[in-house]
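Bumping my old thread because nobody answered last time. Still need a sequence for this structure:
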């Protein structure tokens, strides 16, 4: 199978009450680790590149590395997705460059402006056989969300979500229900607004919802980073059982970047400290790649639940 879009994988995930893991890729070792895990678990997977990843590696490198990986595991459905495209031009560049899915993140814009640009991206993408993820609601800085007013101000409004999808024709929608990006998601108790997710699911039946900021910030990797000279303090993510529950609901795509960063950094730190005489990058990058693979295998089994689903 060549690279594919996300339609079929989301359809099956929705019906099967699981989700597809969307993992951020920045280099060859990360791509290889994720693909080895997807192959071992016989699961579809989404490889996503942010604007930062495209700048770091060079977009054609990412596209060609992913295409090479897809040739190696022809039975694994793989989508190549743009993560958080900030404008029409970046989305167009990815569509023209071989991506099978793009996100336009207009969440910082007023509703009408978000609708306008999302529509423009959808029009171009669909004409080129590419699917579009959009975003509504604000993900950042949810500090111990307690009051209903505070939630309503930041989280996605279910009725607006339904209206947004109807107006734009986007193929999936990222919503804000309590997650946030990075390693420091909650200063108090972890929280996900399932009631809101349920409402969105009712208003948008059979429609794939996306959860950004869905790393667990796996404690053993944080501990290992710190054991081998790192300083990652006070990090907290979304517990696995909470994500698993969301995956059984309307959530079909679970975004994971921070857990990759932590797994890879922990393994590289350990390797460098344990083998101070070594200066061959292949040695510590191999350890990093193995950690990515192990972490992604675990996610596919225990969090997104997509093992043996192809
Ligand atoms: O949402 C993400 C990428 O778009 C990643 O989220 P994390 O920072 O929780 O891994
Ligand atoms: O949501 C953001 C992703 O974690 C990508 O991060 P990045 O822009 O630093 O590549
Ligand atoms: Zn195989
Ligand atoms: Zn994100």
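Sorry it took so long. Here it is:
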């Amino acid at each position: 199978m060549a690279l594919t879009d996300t339609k079929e994988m989301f359809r099956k995930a929705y019906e099967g009450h699981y989700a597809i893991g969307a993992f951020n890729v920045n280099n060859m070792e990360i791509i290889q680790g994720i693909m080895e895990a997807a192959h071992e678990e016989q699961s579809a997977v989404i490889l996503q590149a942010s604007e930062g990843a495209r700048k770091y590696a060079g977009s054609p490198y990412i596209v060609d590395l992913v295409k090479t990986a897809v040739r190696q595991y022809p039975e694994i459905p793989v989508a190549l997705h743009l993560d958080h495209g900030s404008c029409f031009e970046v989305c167009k560049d990815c569509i023209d460059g071989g991506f099978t899915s793009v996100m336009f993140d207009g969440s910082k814009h007023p509703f009408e402006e978000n609708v306008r640009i999302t529509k423009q991206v959808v029009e171009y993408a669909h004409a080129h056989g590419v699917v579009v993820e959009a975003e509504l609601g604000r993900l950042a800085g949810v500090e111990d969300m307690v009051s209903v007013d505070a939630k309503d101000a930041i989280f996605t409004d279910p009725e607006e979500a339904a209206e947004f999808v109807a107006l734009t024709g986007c193929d999936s929608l990222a919503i804000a229900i309590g997650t946030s990006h990075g390693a420091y998601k909650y200063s108090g108790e972890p929280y996900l607004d399932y009631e809101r997710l349920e409402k969105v699911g009712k208003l948008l039946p059979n429609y794939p919802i996306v959860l950004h900021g869905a790393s667990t910030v796996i404690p053993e990797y944080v501990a290992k980073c710190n054991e081998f000279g790192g300083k990652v303090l006070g990090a907290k993510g979304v517990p696995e059982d909470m994500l698993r529950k969301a995956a059984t609901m309307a959530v079909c795509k679970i975004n994971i970047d921070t857990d990759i960063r932590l797994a890879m950094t922990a393994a590289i730190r350990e390797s460098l400290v344990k083998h101070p005489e070594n200066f061959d990058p292949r040695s510590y990058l191999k350890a990093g790649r193995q950690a990515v693979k192990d972490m992604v295998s675990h996610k596919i089994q225990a969090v997104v639940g997509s093992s043996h689903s192809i």
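The beta strands are 20-24, 45-50, 78-85, 101-104, 131-136, 172-175, 209-211, 251-256. Let me know if any region looks off to you.
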